[in-house]
Amino acid sequence: MTKENINRGRFIVFEGLDGSGKSTQIDLLCERLKKDGRNVVKTAEPTMLTTGGLIRDALAGNYPRSSEELSALFLADRIAHNVNPKNGIIKLLAEGADVVCDRYYYSSFAYQGMDCDLDWVIKMNIGCASVTKPDVCFFIDVPTEVCKERVDKRGGFREIFEREQNTLERVRAKYSEVFKKLEDENIVIIRSEGAPEEIAKVIYSSLPHFSD
Predict the structure, then answer these.
(1) According to DSSP H, which parts of the chain are helical?
(2) Quick one: DSSP state of residue 16?
(3) Is this prediction's pTM over 0.85?
(4) Which residues contact 155 (CB under 8 A, 6 or more apart)?
(5) Looking at the domain covering 3-205, what would its CATH class be?
(6) How far apart are the first and last CA of the chain?
(7) What residue ranges do the domains of the chain occupy?
(8) Cβ distance 151 to 158 under 8 Å?
(9) Residue 196 phi/psi, 5° resolution?
């Protein structure tokens, strides 16, 4: 491990179906890392940048786009997320911050990969020099019926991928396919069983440590 990597922060990504409880686990991990004295930055995709706004508009169903269009928009948003000179992922990691991201390119693979060429979506993300590879991805795995029940109970507005259980089932299956293709990535599947605090302990114990 080089000196640069020793001083570099960790890039931690959380993935999961809507209603999987990943937001809760992100908050619990960030709290734990801060108690450890770490500088922690929580972020998410789509971003709050212009590209992220275009994506949210499409996900809301206000401006339907093809899977290819969404894939390209997500990549553009992801590049901006990485290279932003003020608070981009690349800058934050170099400064030693642990960056915890709610969704990353794995979501593009699973969601957009359902209806367009999955290998194309993977290649344009993995092959982009401005897209940082995560140090670890935690996938919070919850049965689709549980996710659907939680989303319905939450009420309010639902994005296009949250509305039908069969869509959630397709997404979960696609995630499984994606993870088999990404054998060289550090992907940890977390079975969401037990209290959130117990799940959080499993996640914390699975974090990579650059000093190892």
Answers:
(1) 3-7, 22-35, 50-59, 67-83, 89-94, 105-111, 118-126, 144-154, 165-181, 196-205
(2) E
(3) yes
(4) none
(5) alpha beta
(6) 9
(7) 3-205
(8) yes
(9) -55, -35
Helix axes 144-154, 165-181, angle to 10 degrees: 130
> pLDDT per position in the chain (212 positions), as tens?
444 455 899 999 999 998 899 999 999 999 999 999 999 999 999 999 999 999 999 988 888 899 999 999 999 999 999 999 999 999 999 999 999 999 999 999 999 999 999 999 999 999 999 999 999 999 999 988 888 888 888 765 555 555 567 888 899 999 999 999 999 999 999 988 789 999 999 999 999 875 44
* Beta-carbon count within 10 A of 186 CB: 14
- Tokens coding 203: 């996640």
Angstrom distance (rounded) from CA 65 to CA 73: 10
Tokens at residue 168, please?
């959630």
> Do residues 32 and 68 make contact, with C-beta atoms less than 8 angstroms apart?
no
What are the residues facing 196 on neighbouring strands?
none
Token pair, residue 74, equals 């997500």
